[in-house]
Amino acid sequence: MKRKGDYFHWRKWDFLVLMLTAVLFGCGDGDKVAEAVRKTAVDLEISRFDRAFAQASPSDLPALKNRYPYLFPEQYADSVWEAKLVDTLQLELLEEVDRAFANFEAETADLELLFKHIKYYFPNYKLPKVLTVTTDVDYNNRVILTDSLLFLGLDNYLGHEHKFYAGMQNYIAAGLDKRFLISDVAGTFGKQVVSRPRDKTLLSKMVYYGKELYLKDKIAPFLDDTEKIGYSSDQLAWAQANEEQIWRYFVERELLYSTNNKLDQRFLDLAPFSKFQLELDNESPGRIGRYMGWQIVRSFMENNDLNLTQLLNLSADEIFKRSNYKPKK
Known about the structure:
Largest sheet: 4 strands, mixed
Radius of gyration: 22 Å
Number of strands: 4
Strand order of the largest sheet: 1-2-4-3
Order of helices and strands: HHEHHHHHEEEHHHHHHHHHH
Strand content: under 5%
Number of helices: 17
Helix content: 40-55%
Structural class: mainly alpha
């Protein structure tokens, strides 16, 4: 496998530039989608509960509880919330969130654009109400999506070097940055529409994650690939440069149809690096199996005339066989 080198990192296209390009230079399928998305209306309601709570006094609690009943479980007495209002750690947490997200306009615009794409591909989808909250840095539940509510734990997006993340393993803290917020929302939506694989082979799990990432290609095309998968630019470049060698490794060791659950930890789960059990493991990014599944699904869609819904309903085995996947050299 190749060692790290210097790679050019493409900048994210501004959506307005993309739209102008569509108008001026053609009307291909991508341009038609962009135009249809632009015309798709969304009325997204976003409430800054984190800020409302930070600015509240005990006398404001009845009004807050009336407006946000689902955030105040009945089993907790008012004294619990009154204590949180004056707790020094909570106050510092709320202050740091307010500093990082003093202006939520960029995030609002990106959320609206994301949901425009979701409504285009899933017209019957009912938009949730968005609430920004704090979670005491519960990064495993940084984004929660229900039938009608989307909770964004903003204290999980303060930047990987923030003092609240001190002591965390670097590969976990790396994802706690606002640049990954929209991708996390898209991924949480993906779990609602991408069915878990029925069989337990590594290939099926790779393609499952590949579907989730390809879904981001469609509903969040304004994101970088690094943001979609949660890699740094160097990590993505490593995966791209070593794609052929990674694929050969999987094939030669007959891992694709293995049901050994230990392969999840080695190639699919969040980890500091993927575990090929080779000298260069430390240079690899974690979750490399997800990246490979993404490339298989991309190849399938390039070689087959199907829409997004049809793709999501196909089995991993059929997708793989019809993908004509050939790793980049």
